[in-house]
Amino acid sequence: MRSIPTVRACIAAALLASTLIPTGPAAATAEDGKPTDLVTALTDFPDFAAIPDSAALDLATVLHGRVQQITGEIMPGAQILLSAWPSNETIRSMPDGESISLTPIARAAVDETGGYLLRAAVTPALRALAGPDGIDVELDVFHADHHYTYLSQATPTDDGQWTRTLTGLTAAVPEVVDKAANLLDLTLDRTKAETQQLLSAPRIPGSLRAYDHPTPLSCTRLQKVGTKPTYETVATTYARGGTKVIDPNGTKAAVTADVTYQHGARTESSTGGSIGGGVFTINGSRSRSEDFEPTWESVRAAPGQVTNMEYQLEFLHAVFRRACSRDYQGNEDVSYFTEPLGSTGGGNPPTPGRYPLWKCGKAASARAGYTKVSTTNKEAATYSAAFNFAPIQGGSFSGSALSGYSDAVVITYHFDDPKTGWWCGDTGYPLAPHQRVQGIQL
Fold it and tell me: Same domain for 203 and 258?
């Protein structure tokens, strides 16, 4: 089994051997002799032993919401551990093979209604981990012999509060539904979780002593095992050239599409997880702000022509490995996680799009009225197949992305004839958020 730092090993050993474990939700064993979710959680992550339950604290709310299984069953008694990753800049610069330590933030028990509330103070140590997009956080959920991991972000504010502004990627449903700031509802799939096999076995309370097993059950630190580049879709354009004659010479109008991705633009990318080198699944999302201004050539839809284009940037994704003990014979559950690092500054020319065109309904359309129209909404569509790469040999991950169409990311359509120019969205009015747009020359 992989080595475990001495301090962590001692804490874990003490947790297993000691009878001074709190009562109530944190009791050492249930009536059937099985360890509670809290004991299982603290065994894997002993650094949380000094973190009090959020229910006993009067501090700012980091995250709150409901937890349920994919079947709709709530998970009362589940333990949620919230920890912070190093800053994105630190991870991006660290060499392969180096390990990182997570910083405990908060823990909480899920109540009888399935709700949870994580509270923590914004300490100088936590603020030091924050980058331009906040703090990358990890939620580890322990319930009924299963261990789930979900990755997200939270931002400490100057007044000591926390905010969470990630929109949530639609492709991640049912893993997450984000409805408001600081709200994170989790729907967890038991088929995508580690199973704590030994700790779930019935045993007589107190019979397992640390001196019987000098290497206690625990998890290794996350180790960076590689960095993978991939091209990620950050925008799409759809343009239809005209068929109407617009002057005595018989000219028909065309429409041109431009995409501008400026300094400060943000792209939210999904993260992936895999157990034992199996299938990667989406297990969260994190946002990255960019400090460069790529340019793409204009795409013109000639009269009678339809263009469907994607705009892609090259992004880096780090891959991390973590092993958690399964039993005292040295068997482990090995998990891999992907982490978006940000763009390299490179990109592809506009390429043919993979997303189908749609018919424009009246409620989703608007006359151009001008020679050019531009998006001004704050969020664009989620691209459910924005990128694909193999984090480990034999394991492929298809991720999603969301680029903010704001003053930093703009799609502009130029019309030869504004009188016959229209544009529309795939879900509503062209300037409504969360959608793709197209320009049409009648």
Answer: no
* Domain match, 95 and 233 both: no
Question: Helix (H, G, I), strand (E, B), or coil: what is residue 11?
Answer: helix
**CA neighbor of 52 nearest in space, from 103, 109, 125, 102:** 109
pLDDT top residue among 10 and 45: 45
Backbone angles phi, psi at 351, to 5 degrees: -120, 155
Which one of 172, 194, 216 terminates a domain? Answer: 216
Of 193, 216, 239, the residue at which a domain comes to its end is 216
**What per-residue string of b and e applies to 261-299 under the rule 16 or more CB within 10 Å gives b?**
beebbbbbbbbbbbbeeeebbbbbbbbbbbebebebeeb
3-state SS string over 174-190?
CCEECCCCCECEEEECH
Element (H, E) at 90: helix 88-93
Which residue type is seen at 89? E
Residue 240 has pLDDT above 90, yes or no: yes
Q: Please state, in angstroms and rounded to a whole number, the distance separating the CA atoms of residues 72 and 50.
A: 33
Domain that holds residue 356: 228-272+279-315+341-441
Q: For 244-257, b where at least 16 C-beta lie within 10 A, e where not — what string?
A: eebeeeeebbbbbb
Q: How far is CA 312 from the centre of its chain?
A: 19
Task: Determine the Cα angle at 166 with ends 162 and 170, to 5°.
Answer: 150
Look at residue 89 and give its three-state secondary structure: helix
Task: Work out the average pLDDT over 111-130.
Answer: 96
Least confident of 162-176, 284-298, 388-402: 162-176
